[in-house]
Amino acid sequence: MRRTIFDLDVLRTFSTGVALGNFAKAAERLGRSTSAVSAQMKKLEEQAGTPIFRKAGRGLALTDAGETMLGYARRLLELNDEAAAAVHSVELEGWVRLGLQEDFGETLLPEVLGRFARAHPKVRIEARVVRNSELLERVTSGKLDLALAWSDSTLTAHCERIGEVPMCWIGPDEGVSGRYGASGDPMPLASLEAPCLMRTAATRALDEAGISWRLAFVSPSLGGLWAATAAGLGLTVRTPIGLPAKVRPLAPEAIGLPHLPKLGLVLHRAEAELQPAGARLGALLLESVHDALRGAGG
């Protein structure tokens, strides 16, 4: 039986097209003609031996085989890029100071640091998982090289808007019964200590909807907030990123609560041009964040 060897260049086009939601955009991003990209996708289906695309309205969607192919394509490309970085940048050295929001501390940080450390073992990394206001203060004062923070419309000298993430009401895994506002009792709200962007968004949305609320639990840490929410002390507002197993997003219309806006995500840099180690870690961080946003619907 002849062994199938997938073309990494074709897989990169495939992955890029799915990420951008449009293969014409992928052609522009990769510097290819649309006909060349179409030929690559035809080649990929031939190699797969099964359709990987299906018609969906005026566009295309992935078949089950296409979803499977996408997962493997990302893994192959990740390993390829990691190998290339390790071989071509063996002597990359230095010190990188990275700051992240708590939401990304347990999900994004281990994956990013693991990949980076394997490729660049001589680079030392100092990572801080802190609140938004401290992240911005530290990157503007030069105490951090990179900071991944929620957007409160504050811009630093060298920042890049990554995307938007939907905010949602979060409750215990077993859900809640009834609708808030119907009985007249204030809705119990669990929140991080002020200042908190999501707490502000929650109270503003409730006030605009005419729903009374009370602060039932206030925590200085995300771990405490998850524990209170899982215990049913109150509902909270976060994004779908990094949710622990004992809590889940709630459909606002089912519990009588207003829909919430999206929250911007920004990567702040201390300098316009970072040292090679910082630039490489920033690129890897962006790649992982984009994957997380796709999973969260951002």
UniProtKB/TrEMBL annotation:
<dbReference type="Pfam" id="PF00126">
    <property type="entry name" value="HTH_1"/>
</dbReference>
<dbReference type="InterPro" id="IPR005119">
    <property type="entry name" value="LysR_subst-bd"/>
</dbReference>
<dbReference type="InterPro" id="IPR036390">
    <property type="entry name" value="WH_DNA-bd_sf"/>
</dbReference>
<keyword id="KW-0805">Transcription regulation</keyword>
<dbReference type="InterPro" id="IPR050176">
    <property type="entry name" value="LTTR"/>
</dbReference>
<feature type="domain" description="HTH lysR-type">
    <location>
        <begin position="6"/>
        <end position="63"/>
    </location>
</feature>
<dbReference type="GO" id="GO:0003677">
    <property type="term" value="F:DNA binding"/>
</dbReference>
<protein>
    <submittedName>
        <fullName>DNA-binding transcriptional regulator, LysR family</fullName>
    </submittedName>
</protein>
<dbReference type="InterPro" id="IPR000847">
    <property type="entry name" value="LysR_HTH_N"/>
</dbReference>
<dbReference type="GO" id="GO:0003700">
    <property type="term" value="F:DNA-binding transcription factor activity"/>
</dbReference>
<keyword id="KW-0804">Transcription</keyword>
<dbReference type="InterPro" id="IPR036388">
    <property type="entry name" value="WH-like_DNA-bd_sf"/>
</dbReference>
<dbReference type="Pfam" id="PF03466">
    <property type="entry name" value="LysR_substrate"/>
</dbReference>
<keyword id="KW-0238">DNA-binding</keyword>
<comment type="similarity">
    <text>Belongs to the LysR transcriptional regulatory family.</text>
</comment>
